[in-house]
Amino acid sequence: METLKNILSAVADTAMFGAIVNTVAVLIGGCIGLLLKKGIPDRIGDTIMKGLALCVLLIGIQGILKGQNTLVTILSMVIGGLIGELIRIDDGMKWLGDYVEKKFKGKGEGVSLAEGFVTASLLFIVGAMAVVGSLQSGLMHDHSTVYAKSTLDFVSSIIFASSLGVGVLLSSIAVLIYQGALTLFAGFLAPVLSDATIAEMTAAGSVIIIGLAFNMLGLTKIKVANYLPAIFLPILFCMFM
Questions:
Q1: Inside any domain, residue 1
Q2: What's the pTM?
Q3: Is residue 10 part of a domain?
Q4: Would you say the C-alpha torsion 139, 143, 148, 152 has a positive or negative sign?
């Protein structure tokens, strides 16, 4: 037993532990959401989906208000969208979702696996908590912020999986890759990620979240994933503006 405690303590002290916990939280929450989904009629599921879309819109508006330099957000979105369109990020993410969907025969649900994957991935990786928490994990092995985010993502994944389906579970891969990369490269990124830069990154990401909300409401068909590079461009712009 003492040996097991020592092993668990050593694992918990690793920089990547926070990202792993967050990933597992999304997986477990998503599984619970899928179990709940089986007992929800389509009419109620559609109502829940629309309510979630409005909540996502609220999250986006709140995030935008954290930005201080509108020009940085505009430049980030325009140039980021151009980069994403050239390398076709949205097509790549949808291809991955469709590929897994074909393997596991997930068709026939109200929302495709690819749509659930893209939507949940963006929701879980955009925001200051993902950036700040990953930096704390990488630099100080302090996972407190990531633990708090994991709790929020756990609850959110239950709700989203009940409406968006199994694609929410697949989004755990995006969480692990994104937060894991930030954690591993924390030593290089910390000097350029000031509070102001993180605020602008959050603002740019929140514009993407609003586009996501419009898609969920069926008002638009924006390729939101193509704008992902916009989240990182404020790092460059804030150095010169």
A1: no
A2: 0.76
A3: no
A4: positive
